[in-house]
Amino acid sequence: MSTIFGIPPQALFGQLLLGLINGSFYAMLSLGLAVIFGLLNIINFAHGALYMMGAFVAWFLLQHLGLGYWWALLLAPIAVGLVGMVFERAMLRHLYKLDHLYGLLLTFGLALIIEGLFRNGFGSSGQPYRIPAELQGGTNLGFMFLPNYRAWVVVASLVVCLATWFMIERTRLGAYLRAATENPALVQAFGINVPRMITLTYGFGVALAAFAGVLAAPIYQVNPLMGSNLIIVVFAVVVIGGMGSIMGSIVTGFALGIVEGLTKVFYPEASNTVIFVIMATVLLIKPAGLFGRSN
Amino acid sequence: MAEAARAMPANADMLAVAGLHAWYGESHVLHGVDLSIRPGEVVTLLGRNGAGKTTTLKSIMGILAKRTGSIVFEGVETIGLPSNRIARLGVAFCPEERGIFASLDVSENLELPPVVRPGGMTIAEIHVLFPNLKERARSQGTKLSGGEQQMLAIARILRTGAALLLLDEPTEGLAPVIIEQIGACIRQLKAKGFTILLVEQNFRFAATVADRFYVMEHGRMIDHIVRSALEANRSKLHDYLGV
Ligand SMILES: Nc1ncnc2c1ncn2[C@@H]1O[C@H](COP(=O)(O)OP(=O)(O)OP(=O)(O)O)[C@@H](O)[C@H]1O
Ligand SMILES: [Mg+2]
Predict the structure, then answer these.
(1) What is the largest CA-CA distance in chain A?
(2) Is residue A79 part of a domain?
(3) Domain boundaries, chain B
(4) Chain A residue closest in CA terms to B94
(5) Closest Cα partner for A162 from A235, A246, A259?
(6) Rounded distance, CA B109 to CA B148, Å?
(7) How far is CA B53 from CA A122, B41, B57, B70, B79, in A?
């Protein structure tokens, strides 16, 4: 058996892996968007810029402080999360009672500013970031060659996504979050500091984006535009999965990455548009998204 | 519960509201409300639709932030505090629309409000009071019947150790046998030492549980009747409530 549906297996599995990698990033980013949208009622357009900031923090830590990949994986989400929390306190807070549109405009403006600043500072050519020594090389699986770093990205993304799901759906802290998503005034009247919870939730969602940015640094280059290229697709993923659904955003993120990979194999001409075609179809058939609750 | 942690002079009011004004945006809804409750009392707030009963409870709880005047709970002025701080002092609210969370199951709903002081009821004690909630612990909160949801809404604030319970129309829309159960529950809570401010339109129900009655109209208190004077005032009350 040298081909599958007329495709050499190396090409098929290679594209599947690429799809899984892309899906890992779609899932982490759309998950953060879903968590933020659920509680803050804000469509966080700055998400791509904050993902890019995560990658730049990793690069900066290495260049200027000599702190490597593993430190970056810990410190970049914290740093970007803090930036996000300041932003939430100073600006987003004033928009919660208004239409989604205002939050979208503000965060979109912020994304442009952040990207502009980084482009000014670093140009638009990418900065390389080396794969950490522990994850260099690869494993021959017989039917394909699996680079270790790529396997790590898929596993790390799955673990982080499922841990987030568990925390939200199965713990007491998550119960506060779910309840506050439904009725923040009542949850606060039970004695919970809801404004602080909102700040921390935004910080968490944004930290997730920064974590994805660090994972991405060795694969794509560290580039001021890396976020804006990705975020458009991620928004399509969010629309397909259903805004605000936790498991929905994880499943949809991985699934669409794979669909995109398979399209590259079987009909490469459509590989850049297949997600948007699916989005349009879903919007027509089930406007609340595949996992969304219509209300 | 009523045997509060804070040192209180005997017979002092647990809650004293004076000159309370409240607004929804620009619309001025309460125009100088006064009321007081002593520890262990069940006090009912009566009044027609739109009189301002719910608004009074939300102002005491701090859910309605735009308010002036004075609200003193166990000696602490709460008029400027956010609702989470007021809850931590030992005040708990059961809303008119019940506020059961659809994304939480029954036991998650029950255990949601954090314990704010020692002395609250245990889950086991609550299950004795409301056996249905035990059987349906894993059901989605909003899949319960209306009566069960009301019981859950009351049950979840009994765990917290709050001494003052604000109950907004707990009998609204319920069948007579359920109303009877809720009445029995309120009497048991009183016997356990809880202090209760109850909003009701169902005067006959209120008469079976309350020590005193305030009557509201157009955002003001227009009358105050103690239980012993109830018979003498019955026709006046019927006029107030339009029943
Ligand atoms: N969210 C709101 N925004 C503006 N006005 C409100 C709001 N809620 C209530 N009101 C107005 O405030 C007044 C008092 O309402 P409130 O809900 O306190 O009455 P109530 O005595 O609880 O009535 P009911 O017996 O119908 O529950 C009413 O005139 C009502 O229309
Ligand atoms: Mg009311």
Answers:
(1) 66
(2) yes
(3) 39-62+82-241
(4) A186
(5) A246
(6) 12
(7) 61, 18, 7, 17, 17
Residue B58 Cα: closest atom of ligand 1? 18
CATH code at position A181: 1.10.3470
Amino acid letter, B46: L
- Note the pLDDT tens digit of each residue in A140-184: 888 788 899 999 999 999 999 999 999 999 999 999 999 999 999
B82–chain A Cβ distance below 8 A for any pair: yes
A295 assigned to some structural domain: no
Domain B39-62+82-241 has CATH 3.40.50.1820: no
Q: Determine how β-strand B42-47 pairs with β-strand B212-217.
A: parallel
Residue A108: its H or E element: helix A100-122
DSSP B178-242: HHHHHHHHHHHHHHTT-EEEEEES-HHHHHHH-SEEEEEETTEEEEEEEGGGTGGGHHHHHHHHT
Put residue B165 in one of left, alpha, beta given phi > 0 → left and psi -120 to 50 → alpha: beta
Q: Is residue A108 part of a domain?
A: yes
Closest CA in chain A for residue B60: A189
pLDDT of residue B11: 61
Give the gap in angstroms from C-alpha B226 to the nearest C-alpha of chain A. 30
Q: Which residues of A touch B83 (CB under 8 A)?
A: 185, 188-189
Q: Please report, in tens digits, the pLDDT of each residue of chain B (243 residues total).
A: 444 445 555 568 999 999 999 999 999 999 999 999 999 999 999 999 999 999 999 999 999 999 999 999 999 999 999 999 999 999 999 999 999 999 999 999 999 999 999 989 999 999 999 988 999 888 998 999 999 999 999 999 999 999 999 999 999 999 999 999 999 999 999 999 999 999 998 888 999 999 999 999 999 999 999 998 888 888 888 888 876
pLDDT digits (tens, 9 = 90+) for A191-227: 999 999 999 999 999 999 999 999 999 998 899 999 9
Q: Of B154, B169, B173, B234, nearest to B201 (Cα)? A: B169
Which of B87, B95, B112 lies closest to A175 in CB terms?
A: B112
Counted domains in chain A? 1
Q: Do B112 and A193 touch (CB under 8 A)?
A: no
CA–centroid distance, residue B225 to ligand 2 (Å)? 21
Q: What is the DSSP string of A137-189?
A: SEEE-SSSEEEHHHHHHHHHHHHHHHHHHHHHHHSHHHHHHHHHHH-HHHHHH
**What is the residue range of A48's domain?**
12-123+146-285
- The C-alpha torsion from A79 through A81 and A82 to A86, rounded to 10°, is 140
How many other C-beta atoms are found inside a 10 Å radius of the C-beta of residue B220? 15
Atom index in ligand 1 nearest the CA of residue B51 equals 21
